[in-house]
Amino acid sequence: MTRLSQSVDRATALLTGADLAADATVREMLEITTQRRSMDLSDLSPSEQATLIADRSQELQPSAEALAERVIKADQRGRPFIAKFGIDPTGAEVHLGHAVPMLILSRFQRMGHQVVFIVGDVTAKIGDPSGRSDDRPALTDEDIARNLVTYREQVTPFFDFTRAHFRHNGDWLRDITLPRLIEITAQIPVSMPLQREDFRKRLDTGQGLSLAELLYSVVMALDSVEINSDLEVGGIDQFLNMQMCRKVMDICGQVPELVVATSLIEGTDGTGAKMSKSKGNYVPLTATVGEIFGKIMSVPDRLVEPYFRALSEWRNAELAVTSERLLSGSVHPMDVKKILAGEVTAALHGVDAAMKAREEFVARFSKRTFNEVDDLPTVANLDQSVTDVVKALGFAKSNGDVRRVAEQNGLRLVIEAQDGQDQVALTADDIRETLAGVVKDKLGNRTGDIYLKVGRKLARIDIAL
Predict the structure, then answer these.
(1) CB of 307 within 8 A of CB of 265?
(2) CA-based, 20 to 30 A from 291: which of 120, 258, 364, 398?
(3) For position 133, what pLDDT does the model report?
(4) Count of Cβ atoms closer than 10 Å to residue 248 Cβ
């Protein structure tokens, strides 16, 4: 069994039966998955490595099988497998949208491969035209130098730069001669860059399109030629640029690199637009602990699973267990979102900082009492079994459903008094007893308003304590 599979088994067991609202459970989960971010993955076979990468890729060209074969061939030839990621310093901040392909790249490093992180101090002068409807404002050398100051520091949580290479493409692009550029571009049909939908739209609407923008992907491809890349990672918006990298490498007599394109994550505003600095819907890697946690908590519930897939080390088995518990009502969506916020915060600042942010968030935003909730159903007949009460409320369809919720710590008595709220989980044995007996046994002589909580559903218990 690999180290990763052991970690996944441990986390899956925790997610299956533990109370995901409890701080102790959340801390344990964050410790497991944060440790996974630095886990040695070299015990994975080439096939397992390819599967792990493909699992979080929107496109893997030509295939996962080809990736495994390329890894094997590199080992047979006694040379490192080289994986590349590039980013242009068009602004001073790196954000979580950039972190999606960086997380993929970090896995290659932990598999034992050579990772090259390239900052495009020359390509930034052109500006990546992907998805734009107009020309990007030109940057001066001073702008680029100012933006570059903290790039390495910002991405350090994802890489070990004692082993990874951090390079500027100006180190080789400034030496490219005009005859060499003409030699390469003479073999690239103009129709290839013009296949891009964004370029066609701009031309159709009379928007500007410069020759520099047409050359952007060719210049970017020279980065891959320089390092003789085996694989490049980027967002799906870079897919056509990476196709040009393959073309130019072939022209230069190299074996074309493989391409891993990751999905673009939506911004925190929930409008459907991708996360970007221009739209202000992003989370910078330099944000404070509280800002990161709070911004993740602000995203719509529908983005929780895509964010987990893109920004965490959770595997499919863990996501499946959590989805099942959400469907059964044994865990509240807010509790899952708090774990997500903790995951992202811990990745950048550590588990202790994430738990502190969680504590401060709860203290600030979770003070509403159940007594303030209108139109709650009321349980008046306490002589029925807990199982019958839950079914009568319509909170479960069968005895088995009630039992499953109880086994997953989703069935609770809640007592609310002036000094706060306390929740007591009911076991699978408790549900066979009368509600009156369970209330007396679990709460004794305590005073306050009593509620029955079944997953996300809540009912008032008509009894005075």
Answers:
(1) yes
(2) 120
(3) 45
(4) 24
